[in-house]
Request: fold
Amino acid sequence: MSQTKTPIQIDAKDLPLRCQGAQTQGWNGHPSVGLAIQANGTATCPYCGTVYQVNGKIQSHH
Reply:
């Protein structure tokens, strides 16, 4: 599967984030994997390399 060149923009309401192959149809994706958001507001899928970018501030759960 190919890596996206531009991060996919998501909102905090879309969390928790899971990827199944963002650029593929559901039947052709990879196993669903939960992604941790990094301090810079991004997450990268270890299976397909898709990069996600969170818009806005993420509320702390601690």
In short: The chain has a mean pLDDT of 82. The two ends are 35 Å apart (CA to CA). The CA atoms of residues 5 and 51 lie 8 Å apart.
